[in-house]
Amino acid sequence: YFLKGVILEYVQDCEPKTRSIDLLDLRPDTDAIALVDEIQKGEPLITASCKEHVIHLVRRLQDKLGEKEDHKFYLFKVLRAHILPLTNVAFNKSGSSFITGSYDRTCKVWDTASGEELRTLEGHGKVVYAIAFNNPYGDKIATGSFDKTCKLWSTETGKCYHTFRGHSAEIVCLSFNLQSTLVATGSMDTTAKLWDIEKGEEIVTLGGHSAEIIALSFNTTGDRIITASFDHTVAVWDVGTGRMLHTLIGHRGEISSAQFNWDSSLIVTGSMDKTCMLWNAMTGTHIATLAGHSDDILDVCFDYAGQRIATASADGSARVYNAETKKCIAKLEGHGGEISKVCFNPKGNRILTASSDKTARLWDAATGHCLQILEGHTDELFSCAFNYKGDIIITGSKDNTCRIWH
What we know:
Blueprint: E1 5-12, E2 15-22, H1 32-41, H2 48-66, E3 75-80, E4 86-91, E5 97-102, E6 107-111, E7 117-121, E8 128-133, E9 140-145, E10 150-154, E11 160-164, E12 171-176, E13 182-187, E14 192-196, E15 201-206, E16 213-218, E17 224-229, E18 234-238, E19 244-248, E20 255-260, E21 266-271, E22 276-280, E23 286-290, E24 297-302, E25 308-313, E26 318-322, E27 328-332, E28 339-344, E29 350-355, E30 360-364, E31 370-374, E32 381-386, E33 393-397, E34 401-405
Antiparallel strand pairs: 1-2, 3-34, 4-5, 5-6, 6-7, 8-9, 9-10, 10-11, 12-13, 13-14, 14-15, 16-17, 17-18, 18-19, 20-21, 21-22, 22-23, 24-25, 25-26, 26-27, 28-29, 29-30, 30-31, 32-33, 33-34
Helix pairs in contact: 1-2
């Protein structure tokens, strides 16, 4: 389950399927049993045997929603992670461990609680640029490298299961589907590829862009993937067939990031043309342009519920928009340099930004007030992330360190 939603996994005609149930209106005082009764009416998948489990999940979500939220973060540990600069950091779902990629050609696995290095994943011939856990499971890690290969590793042992070869240029982005059956890689060779995790084989090449692919993202159910390219477009693909379903055309600059919302109905894109655009994921049609920034948009994201969108810009500000009304709800102003990363905490009431001014900032998502400045890095930040509970933050900087904040 996720905040604001439950995913049901089931088998129909020998095919594994998933269905997501939307709980956007859930509140701490909602009657959980009545709610599940209501869902059950329209959802034959919830049988008597699994109904208790769904009620339990809903109550756990309610507990989360009811928690008081005035957490101050303090620096817990500085990790001198690699001898050469870092490229990326990522948490596993629980936040018990995280990984760092580096120009030193390795990916390292770290224990969040102690700050100890657990293992080093060695084998790439060049920069390890893109890294990911297969969340929510977290038992596998994928690394994408400038050596044109992607490797799949065991988190537990550090053993390399597969090396995926086939791209003719650097791999710069990758992602697992939520079902943890596929890994997608995007490359400077203008293609993306889907790989079978079990078999270690290429399933399909997604070809059609005229420039590098710099971001890609699966939807929740795993039947669609989007690829964002320097050719100013985003393509929507059918994962099963590898067919291109839509091209999202409208941006006048390179795309910096693209994402589905939770129920996979919307896609948000950010671009160097200073705008963020909202698209209908089913039809590929343009819904709205979210304007207001005075420089490149470097990152965009939805909250888990898909109700809000946050944008980060080279103009030094971030903005929050309501996905329904398309209005700007809050301007996050105060950083002294460009903001390269923005993310919501899982509850969606806090926003974290990472900036070239050497700080990260924590903001109230509703009001735009800055709640805290995370200081101490000695060079620009390129990464920031929350763990799933939202009580640990990790920041990555060009000063070659990661900082863990509790």
